[in-house]
Amino acid sequence: MTETEKLFNNILIEAIDEGLLILSESGREVVYSHLHNYYGLKKEDIPKNLATFLNCIRKIFGSGAFVIEKAIIKTLYKKLD
Question: Taking the domains of the chain in order of start, what are their residue ranges?
């Protein structure tokens, strides 16, 4: 993995972390716990497994996952700007 990829992955993790705060800190931790317990995925592995992450939040929140995805994308965009 190149340094650029590592940097982007770190920024993506930060954006996901901040975007999930739309749920509150405890809500964010529930998502990470569910992701780990049901999918075997740790937070730092999300960039390599985005489809699994999206599947997880869509199963938990249904159509409401769109709001979370949008918050993450907005945060990512700000960090990359």
Answer: 21-80
